[in-house]
Please model this.
Amino acid sequence: MMAQNFTLAGPFSETFRGSTLKSTIVTTNTVTQELNLFKLGVNYLFNPTAGL
Model:
């Protein structure tokens, strides 16, 4: 399993009752990647005397 962390940051501005609040929002996220693989094979010779 492979995991990658990344951080996003951006300005935030909100006005409430005539006052403006300015701040920066920072969030960190983790993304994981998984690979599930299943393989099945069947071999059958339909004409066993063809090569003789």
